[in-house]
Amino acid sequence: MTLPVSEPSIRRFKPGHLLSFFDWAAGPVAKLARLDVELLTHMLELDRKRMHLVALTLAHADDGASGELARLLARGSAREVLDRILDGRPAGILRALDRLPDRAISARGYRQLVALLREPNAAKILNHVHAIEEEDIDDLHALPTRLRRSAIVDAFGCFQNASWLEEILALLVRRGVATDVEALRDDLSALNCRSQFKARLCRLVEALPLPAALPPAELGFARRLDHPAELRELARRWRNCLASFVDEVDQGSKAIYLWEEPRLKAVCMVERRGRLGWFLSEAKGPRNRRLSPERRERLQSGFAAAGIPPDGVADAIEHLCLEGDERPRRSAQQAALPDGQDQGEGAALDNGIPDPDEPV
To answer: From 16's CA, which of 75, 222, 255, 328 has a CA 20 to 30 Å away?
Structure first.
């Protein structure tokens, strides 16, 4: 039964500390609580899975805060809420909600999670991990649909390394060991076994020609600084440790660039990773200030256009090909499967475990 609430108290109600775990969803939850006080009472009994269910609902609700939505969240079972909001819940959605962090993830993260769970291959990967971070969802979503396969994620050891696969394929084509990214994508996506995928990709990596002695002298808004005196002078003006890399620049294992445009000035370090070539490893402003994600992305795009990808690409390749053949973990947090168990591509999505139908 909905309790009567006076208009002044409705206007005064704002999300407080107990709703802080909802993050961006705290405001919408507060609005819904104004429409049905039973929902506010329910907040005192909320567990983590239910918190994510509410946030996921708000991420997908087209009509915003409404009395109908408030009543649904206050009285409906988990299955009823999902069937109403998602127009058919994907397999494993309730288990996935139970493996998310202690705080709400972004609205985009919930939408990506639902989209991934609607794909059989991606759903199988997520249903076999013990913890799901928003970064895992982003990384898995970054893979093209046909490459979201257990064999690929297992070979790389974690979602983050696997997310660089497209950049790795571009590097292999650019360096001449493959002719076309699309054909290479088709070839790798047909491999159902982790060891086959790993062997195929590692053979291509070993076929890479030796890289150029030095990366380009100029690229985009950046120019390479080759002279020790110039490096020491910039280190003095920018108050950083740039001078300590003079020996590595002289030896040809690192290159230093000064990126200069009207609203973005940065020192960028490029490092050679053996046969793999040159990669952008560092980018900072004066006095070693960190760059905003937008500015760092702009620098990475500029270097990538010149054939110098971020060093995460090299990290992923080295983990795949140079770290031995022990079974890696599918997630950075916990092992995906018991030791010695290797699910095939045709394994069932839910292993026969029913989703619990929890009342609100």
So the answer is: 75
| Residue located via tokens 């407080």 | 16
> What is the structure's pLDDT at 30?
76
134 phi-psi bin (left φ>0, alpha ψ -120 to 50, beta other): alpha
Where are the alpha helices (H) located in the chain, listed in sequence order?
7-12, 26-35, 37-42, 48-60, 67-75, 78-86, 93-98, 107-117, 120-127, 134-142, 150-156, 159-162, 165-174, 181-189, 194-206, 228-238, 246-251, 293-305, 311-322
Phi and psi torsions of 358, nearest 5°: -90, 130
What is the C-alpha to C-alpha distance for residues 117 and 110, in angstroms, rounded to an integer? 11
Residue 149's nearest CA partner among 133, 165, 134, 168 is 165
pLDDT at residue 197 tops 90:
yes
User: Distance between CA atoms of 333 and 46, rounded to whole angstroms?
Assistant: 25
- Each residue's pLDDT tens digit, 289-344: 999 999 999 999 999 999 999 999 999 999 999 765 444 344 433 333 333 333 33
pLDDT number for residue 153: 93
User: What pLDDT is recorded for position 325?
Assistant: 47
The structural domains of the chain, with segments of one domain joined by +, span 7-118, 218-307
Residue in the block written with tokens 């998602």: 86
Q: Which residues of 223-259 are buried (b: 16+ CB within 10 A; e: fewer)?
A: ebbeeeeebeebbeebebebeebbeebeeeebbbbbb
> Model pTM?
0.76
CB 82 within 8 A of CB 53: yes
Angle CA(174)–CA(186)–CA(128) in degrees, nearest 5?
Answer: 110
Pseudo-torsion of CA 156, 160, 163, 164, nearest 10°? Answer: -80
CA dihedral 319, 323, 325, 331 (to 10 degrees): -40
Closest CA to 167 of 191, 149, 195, 143: 143
Contact 238, 257 (CB under 8 A): no
- pLDDT tens for each residue of 95-115: 999 999 999 999 999 999 999
Q: Are 112 and 141 in contact (CB under 8 A)?
A: yes
Map tokens 């206050």 to a residue.
74
